[in-house]
Amino acid sequence: MNESLTFHFDVDGTDFTSAGQASANVKRSLRQLGLAPDIIRQVSIAMYEGEINMVIHAGGGEADVTVFEDKIEIVLKDHGPGIKDIDLAMQEGYSTATDTVRSLGFGAGMGLPNMKRYTDEMHIETEVGKGTTIKMYVNLTD
Amino acid sequence: MTVNELAAKCSLNPVAVPDGEKEVEGGYAGDLLSWVMGRARENCAWITIMSNINIVAVASLADIGCIILAEGVTADENVIATANEKGVNILSTQMTAYETAVAIGKLI
Ligand SMILES: Nc1ncnc2c1ncn2[C@@H]1O[C@H](COP(=O)(O)OP(=O)(O)O)[C@@H](O)[C@H]1O
Ligand SMILES: [Mg+2]
pTM, whole model, 2 decimals? Predict the structure, then answer.
C-alpha cells in the first residue's frame, strides 16, 4: 500500500549532447503511471534544469526520483564545486557558465529559478569544494 | 490548428514531423533554453535559431507543439533522427524570427 516507486540514474558529466536522459526516462515512466500532463511537465522541466546544472557546473552526479502517494520527490546529488552564495545563484540571470555552454543555449541563469517555479518545495544543501544536493517536491494533491 | 496545417499555410519546410496531427496553440520566440522552459506554453510553436541537439530535449520535456527553425537555419542528421525518435516536430523557414511570428500569429 505504502510502497513507493523509485528511479535511480547516474548523470554523465562529460556529454552535453546526451544531457537530459534521466529526465526523459522519468517523463516516460510518469506517463506510464498515468499522472496528469501538467504534473509531468513540472517534474520534467525542474529535473532537466537540475540535470543540466550537474552536467555543466558539477561534472555529473546522481538523480533519484521517488513517486509517493501524495508527491514526487526529486533528489539531485553531485560532488562538484558547490555553490558559494545560494541567494546570488537563485537570482534570475546570474550564471557562471562558460562561453561554450552559453553557445549551446544554456547559461541564461534561469535554471534554479525555473526549478523553484515548477516545484512546490525546493531545498539546496551545498558545501564549497564538496558538492551540492538539491531536493525538489511536486505535490500530487491540491 | 495542427502542425501539418500550420506548415502548409505558412510554407514551412518539414524537417522532422513525427507527430504532424498535433494541435499547436500560440507561440514563443527565443534561443535561451531556460527562458523557453520557463516561459513557453505547452503545445506552442517555438521559433528559434538554435539548432543543436538540446532543443529536442527541451521541446520534448516542455511539451512544445513544434520547433520552427527560422532564418534558414538547418538541423543536422543526428538532430533530425533524435526528433523523429522522440516525437518532436521540427519545421524550418527562410523567414526571420519576426516574420515567422507575424505569419503564424495570424493563424494560431
Ligand atoms: N549543481 C551545481 N553545482 C555548482 N554550482 C551550481 C550548481 N547548480 C547551479 N550552480 C551555480 O548557480 C548558478 C545559477 O544556476 P542556474 O540558475 O541554473 O543558471 P545557469 O545554469 O544558466 O548558469 C550557476 O551559474 C552556477 O554558478
Ligand atoms: Mg542551469
Answer: 0.96
Mutation target among A17, A38, A119 for the B interface, most CBs of B within 10 A: A17
- Name the region of A128 (left: φ>0; alpha: ψ -120 to 50; beta: rest): beta
Q: What is the pLDDT of residue A17?
A: 82
Number of domains in chain A: 1
For chain B, list the domains and their CATH numbers: 3-107 (3.40.1390.20)
Q: Does B63 touch chain A (CB under 8 A)?
A: yes
Q: What is the pLDDT of residues A52-73, one digit of tens each?
A: 999 999 999 999 999 999 999 9
| Contact of B43 with B64, CB cutoff 8 Å | yes
Full domain range(s) for residue A120: 5-139
Residues of A whose CB is below 8 A from B52: 17, 104-105
The alpha carbon of A50 and the centre of ligand 2 are apart by a number of angstroms equal to 7
Q: Is B38 on the interface with A (CB under 8 A)?
A: yes
- Cα torsion A55, A95, A82, A48: sign: negative
| pLDDT of A1 higher than 70 | no
